DUF2868 domain-containing protein (Zoogloea dura), 496 residues
Amino acid sequence: MSAVHPPPMNEASARQVLLVRSLESADGASPHWNAADADWASRAATEVVGEDASADRFLARRAQLALERLGDRDRQFHKLTGTGRWRSWTGAVLVAAGFALGILMDAAGPTRYVNILAFPLLGLIAWNLLTYALLLTHALAAPFRSAQRRPGVLGRAVARLGGALTESPLADQASAALRFRGEWARASLPLTAWRVARVLHLAAAAFALGAIAALYVRGLVLQFQAGWESTFLSAGQVHQALSLLLGPASALTGIAIPDALQLEGLRLPEHSGASAAPWIHLYAASLVILVVLPRLVLALISSLAARRLENHFPLPVGDAYFQRLQRAFSGQAARLHVVPYSYTLSPQATLLLQDALGRAFGPRAQLSIAPQVGYGGEDALPSSILPDGSPTLVLALFALSATPEDENHGRFAEALAKALPAGTPVAALVDEAAFQSRFGKQPERLDERRRAWSRLLEGRRIDVLFADIEHGGAPSTLAEGLSALLDRHARHGGGQ
């Protein structure tokens, strides 16, 4: 019977992977880590997990081995691993604070007369009902949002208290630390949001319980009278409103809501009111039904969602860095597929692309160039332009000298993306060579044409890279641009 391994890419493993990634991607060489160390970590991880292991297990084990070696070389490096870690005591502190604030709330009002239409607890119930409506609205709108919704002011404050948005980088690891802090905050945003939601729901429930407790404690030593007054409402209308609001509590407690005639006898100032005890019981029960229980259910949902992310952390591993490591582990080569549109790729440009591809994705990377799609051919793309297998990146190739037209260039880019398998990274490369040879001394025209192409392609959610691939531009610059395209695709949710 084979051994059962726990899911390797949990929260702790993801933190380690991103930390090593930040160190290996930081600008400038590190005195504690170099290319030979990176190669050793990859080889050692492959030997430990075996060649048949998943990419997640390989990346997690590689990061663990790298951090063990780094820890031996620099004891202070261990401090960096605590950056952005959630403080588990945050929830207990805020829940206790919520309960204390609830006790301090004057739930009965400033006098010993309880206005059953202006009970402070009524405002608390209304606020929570509004919160539920907003949560439902956000949940229904979530599938239509292109970017993840960031926490509000209160959520960010709780996240900072919990440690998810704090910690200062070490002086000797500033570049890597700053990169890691930003990447971890972005990668852990869904987990942080669920943790913050859990804390806020529990704190809201504790606040309501504190208010109920304070109300009953005051009721033990003080005599409260209940009544109501209104300029516009009749006793019949008040009865209808109270039946709607307090009906569930009345059914639960068995305390009947007075009819219109009885309510007329509680009208102030004509009458002196009656004992507030039944109304206190009804409002307290309503608070439990409408605030405490729903908040506890929402806290449970948030807790389960957070636990799922803690154990199965969705680390986006589709960027150039992770792709390079996974290809080295699996032995597969990166593949760049270029589809020119009304553009003839010269041999010199082909060599420059191949050189940049090797710099970005390794010496074994492969370049394939599809037959040119002529102007106007976007409505019926031939199957011959599609790549074989699953390419690392597909580029629609345009010339900057062409005026960007949505009905032609835009439709071609969109049609190409739709013709590829779902999840295939697609971007656009716009060659500036011909345009620069004519207008190289007019930088304002170059900027204007770039903006026009960017508006056209990014409006169709296609990332764009501008480069001179005809006149021997720096391959390293083009390589960085290709890597950045793959990174942006991974960040936008298509990396996995």
The chain has three domains: 11-80, 89-311, 333-494. Residues 277-311 form the longest helix (35 residues).
